[in-house]
Design goal:
Layout (H helix, E strand, L loop, with lengths): L3 E27 L9 E17 L2 E15 L6 E15 L8 E17 L2 E27 L3 E28 L9 E9 L3 E5 L2 E16 L2 E16 L8 E17 L5 E30 L4 E11 L3 E14 L5 E19 L4 E16 L4 E15 L8 E17 L2 E15 L1 E12 L13 E6 L5 H7 L4 H7 L11 E6 L2
Antiparallel strand pairs: 1-6, 2-3, 3-4, 5-6, 7-13, 8-10, 9-10, 10-11, 12-13, 14-21, 15-20, 16-17, 17-18, 19-20, 22-23
Length: about 500
C-alpha cells in the first residue's frame, strides 16, 4: 500500500527590508531682482514628498521632491515674502533579495535645517531628510494536511489563516481650478498647504478595486492685508487594477495626502483670484481571503515504524485595523511680547515609537508633537512661534498575541486654539492615528513523513487486548500511539465519548 501525502502551502507576509536612509538638502539662493532685500528671516522649512517608487529585481528605486520654503520680511514692510525652491532626488535601495508580491512603505521626514542670511540678497541653507523604508514580501511555508495508507493514524489541528493577500499602491493626481470666494482677498504667495482626507469608500469588482473619497485642502497665503486662510474640498475616485481579486476577498483602503501645488492665475485686474491646483493622494489598497484547513500535528503507523519532521509554523491572520483619536494640549508663548493676531496654527508629529505589551494587550504610541503658529506681533510683523512637546497614548488591542507586530502612523492632526492672554496661545491638538495590528496563529505541524514498510512493528507478546490504567484528562491519542493502535478502536471498545479521559480507571486497549 502506497503512502499518500497531501500538502498545504501557507503564505506569510514577512518584512524583508527595514532601514532608514538620509538625503542632504542644500540651497545657495540669490534673490531675483523682483524680490525686495532681506531684512528679517522668519522661517525656513523642508517639505519632503515621495512622488514615485518601483522595484526591479532586488532593487527598490524611488524619487523624492524636497520643497525648500523660506519666509522673510523686507525693511519697512509688514508684507511676508515667500520663496519656494524644489529639489528632486532619485534614490535606490538594495533589498538583498527579490521580493514576491512586494508591499512598500516609504516615509520621509525633515530632520534638521540651518538657514543663514549671507547678505541682503543671498541665503545659504543646509538641511537633511531621513527616509524610512519598509518592504514586505510574500514567502511560502509548507505543511502536511493529510496522510493515508500504510496504517497511518493522524491527529489534526484546525487552522484558519489568511491564504491570499493582494496589495496595491497608487498615487492619484487631481487637477482643477477653483475661484477664491468674494469674501477672501486675492492671493500673492502660498505659505503652506495642509491636506486632510475623509474615510475612503471601496468596492471590489472582478480584478479591480474601486476607491473614492474626499480631500479637504487648507491653504495659508499672503495677501495685501497680511495673511489669510481658506479651505476647499476635492472629491476623488479611481479604479485600480488588482489581478486575482474578486468578491470573496475582504478589503480595506488607506489614503494619505502627498502634496497640493497651488498656481495662481491673474485676472484682468492683475489679481490672483483663480487657483490652479494639482492634488496628489497616495492610495494603498489591501485585500485578503481567509480559508479553514486541517493540518497534521502528529502521526504514527499501527504497522510500520514511522518518522516525521515537524516545525513551528505561524498562520497569518487578517490584520486588525486600528483607528484612534486622542488629544494633546500645548501652550505657545511669544516671549513676553504681545500677540496682535493669529493667522494660523498647525501641528505635526515626529519620532513616532510603538511599544507592544502582550500582558495588558496594549500598544503604547509615543512621539513628539511639533506645534507652530503664524502670528502678527505688536508691530504688525509676521512671526512664527514653535514648540515641541512629548506625547504618549495607550491603545487597547484584545486580539494581540506574543508574536504580534503593529504599524501605526499619524494620519492628521486637527488644531483649535484660543488666546489665553496677550502673549500666549493655548492649542488643543486632536491626533488621529491609524494602522494595522498583525497577528499569527502559532502551532506545531508535520512538514515531512516517512514510513519504513520493510520492517513491521513487533509486539512484546501475542495478545489482542491489553489492560491499561488511565488517568483523568489523559489524551486517548497518546495512549493509542503508545500501543500502536487507533483512537477509534479504544473509544469504541470502552464506549468513550470524549478523546480525553473524564475519570481515572481501567481501559481495554484493542490491538489493531
Amino acid at each position: 500500500m502506497n503512502l499518500k501525502i497531501e500538502r498545504e502551502t501557507l503564505s506569510v507576509n514577512e518584512k524583508i527590508y527595514d532601514g532608514v536612509g538620509e538625503q542632504s538638502v542644500e540651497l545657495d539662493y540669490i534673490l531675483p531682482d523682483y524680490y525686495p532685500d532681506i531684512f528679517k528671516l522668519i522661517r525656513c522649512s523642508i517639505i519632503p514628498v515621495i512622488t514615485s517608487q518601483s522595484i526591479s529585481g532586488s532593487t527598490l528605486s524611488y524619487e523624492m521632491t524636497a520643497d525648500v520654503k523660506i519666509l522673510y520680511s523686507a525693511e519697512g514692510s509688514n508684507q511676508l515674502q515667500c520663496i519656494t525652491q524644489r529639489q528632486v532626488y532619485s534614490k535606490s535601495v538594495d533589498l538583498g533579495e527579490v521580493p514576491n508580491s512586494p508591499d512598500i512603505c516609504i516615509r520621509p521626514k525633515s530632520d534638521h535645517i540651518n538657514c543663514r542670511v549671507v547678505n541682503k540678497r543671498r541665503i545659504d541653507m543646509r538641511g537633511a531628510v531621513s527616509i524610512k523604508v519598509t518592504v514586505k514580501g510574500e514567502s511560502k511555508q509548507e505543511a502536511i494536511s493529510d496522510v493515508s495508507g500504510m496504517n497511518i493514524q493522524t491527529r489534526k489541528v484546525p487552522v484558519e489563516y489568511m491564504a491570499k493577500r493582494i496589495a496595491s499602491q497608487r498615487v492619484l493626481t487631481v487637477n482643477d481650478d477653483m475661484e477664491l470666494p468674494n469674501t477672501k482677498p486675492a492671493l500673492i504667495d502660498t505659505v503652506r498647504t495642509e491636506i486632510s482626507l475623509s474615510d475612503a469608500e471601496s468596492k471590489i469588482i472582478s480584478n479591480k478595486f474601486v476607491v473614492k473619497g474626499d480631500a479637504t485642502v487648507k491653504i495659508l497665503y499672503t495677501c495685501n492685508d497680511g495673511m489669510e486662510t481658506m479651505s476647499f474640498s476635492v472629491p476623488y475616485s479611481q479604479i485600480i487594477d488588482m489581478d486575482g481579486i474578486d468578491e470573496s476577498f475582504s478589503c480595506y483602503v488607506t489614503a494619505d495626502g502627498v502634496s497640493c501645488d497651488i498656481t495662481p492665475v491673474s485676472d484682468e485686474n492683475g489679481d490672483n483670484r483663480t487657483l490652479k491646483y494639482e492634488l496628489k493622494i497616495n492610495v494603498r489598497c489591501c485585500a485578503y481571503k481567509t480559508i479553514p484547513v486541517q493540518l497534521v500535528a502528529d502521526a504514527y503507523s499501527t504497522a510500520y515504524p514511522c518518522e516525521y519532521a515537524s516545525a513551528e509554523l505561524a498562520a497569518p491572520q487578517p490584520p486588525v485595523m486600528i483607528n484612534e483619536k486622542f488629544q494633546s494640549k500645548i501652550t505657545l508663548e511669544n516671549d513676553g511680547n504681545e500677540i496682535a493676531g493669529v493667522y494660523d496654527v498647525w501641528c505635526s508629529a515626529k519620532n513616532i515609537n510603538l511599544t507592544l505589551d502582550n500582558d495588558v494587550k496594549s500598544i503604547k504610541i509615543s512621539g513628539m508633537l511639533c506645534c507652530q503658529a503664524m502670528i502678527k506681533n505688536e508691530n504688525d510683523m509676521a512671526s512664527v512661534l514653535e514648540k515641541d512637546q512629548a506625547f504618549e497614548y495607550e491603545i487597547t488591542c484584545d486580539e494581540m498575541t506574543s508574536s504580534s507586530t503593529a504599524e501605526l502612523n499619524i494620519l492628521r492632526i486637527d488644531c483649535s486654539y484660543n488666546l489665553t492672554d496677550m502673549n500666549s496661545i493655548s492649542v488643543k491638538a486632536d491626533i488621529y492615528a491609524a494602522g494595522d495590528l498583525y497577528t499569527s496563529a502559532c502551532f506545531k505541524a508535520i512538514t515531512d513523513i516517512t514510513v519504513d514498510e520493510s520492517v513491521k512493528i513487533t509486539r512484546d507478546g501475542d495478545y489482542a487486548i491489553k489492560l491499561y490504567y488511565g488517568v483523568k484528562d489523559e489524551q486517548i491519542w497518546n495512549i493509542a500511539k503508545k500501543y500502536s493502535t487507533s483512537v477509534t478502536a479504544i473509544m469504541e471498545e470502552n464506549s468513550l465519548e470524549s478523546e480525553s479521559l473524564t475519570d481515572n480507571g481501567m481501559l481495554l486497549i484493542p490491538i489493531v
